[in-house]
Design brief:
two-stranded parallel ribbon, mainly alpha
Length: 249
């Protein structure tokens, strides 16, 4: 790894940590960067999942005020997310690498579509959400488990999927929903990362650079996230996602 490559991976970690905290989909930054530097797709995905865990923790600490009073809602969703992550990680390690190459472009395409359509989907189902003081319902729990499987297999845009799901099923302030999303996605990365550490090849140099950058980005995202324009972030993620699809295909 050259110094220039190391600097680019570190910078990608900062960007991913920020985006994961504010919106989600930071993997659409770090994953293509690792691919561009010659990492195999599965190795890049595993290394990225491990590296982004500290950034999620930093983002959760930054959102601790918004997390207050959400324990009743969060516990079943955390269990669902962890179970889904384990299933997704096992699928990644069980299926052949060729399957990952075929499936990932589709996942990125779906993630990009979710990013573009998120405001419209939220408005369309606004009347079907649970009150803020209620526990998570079956739809939110089942959806969180499914996004957990997706995140354990390939984490790109899992945060966007979670934000859309929680926003559609829970009637609460967006910042509180976003705080819950940060914790759920972080736990998902942690569970799948633990499995990858013991059962897959992690490039620890790249993972360490992503981790260091994501901590800075997660902290900055929690502090400044409310001032960043969501439309601009969505545009950047869409561009990066399209580049990733072109490279993989």
């Amino acid at each position: 790894m050259t110094p220039l490559h190391a600097l680019a991976i570190f910078a990608a970690g900062i960007a991913a940590g920020t985006i994961n905290t504010v919106v989600g989909s930071g993997t659409l930054i770090t994953f293509p960067v690792l691919l561009a530097f010659g990492y195999a797709p599965v190795t890049a995905n595993v290394t990225n999942a491990v590296g982004l865990v500290p950034g999620s923790a930093a983002g959760a600490v930054g959102y601790r005020r918004e997390l207050r009073g959400q324990r009743r809602r969060a516990v079943p969703l955390l269990i669902a997310s962890a179970a889904g992550a384990a299933i997704g990680a096992i699928l990644l390690l069980s299926l052949p690498a060729s399957a990952f190459k075929d499936i990932v472009p589709v996942f990125i395409g779906l993630a990009v579509a979710m990013i573009v359509l998120q405001p419209q989907l939220t408005r369309a189902l606004e009347g079907h959400r649970r009150a803020a003081d209620q526990a998570a319902g079956p739809a939110a729990t089942a959806g969180t488990a499914l996004t957990g499987v997706y995140g354990g297999y390939f984490g790109a845009a899992q945060g966007i999927l979670l934000l859309s799901l929680l926003g559609l099923t829970i009637d609460d302030d967006l910042q509180r929903i976003n705080a819950l999303k940060v914790v759920l996605a972080g736990l998902n990365n942690f569970v799948s990362g633990v499995i990858f550490v013991f059962a897959a090849h992690v490039d620890w140099g790249a993972a360490g650079l992503i981790a260091a950058g994501s901590i800075l980005g997660g902290t900055a995202g929690a502090h400044w996230g409310r001032r960043l324009p969501p439309a601009g972030l969505r545009a950047v993620i869409v561009i990066v996602g399209v580049v990733a699809i072109v490279r993989l295909v």
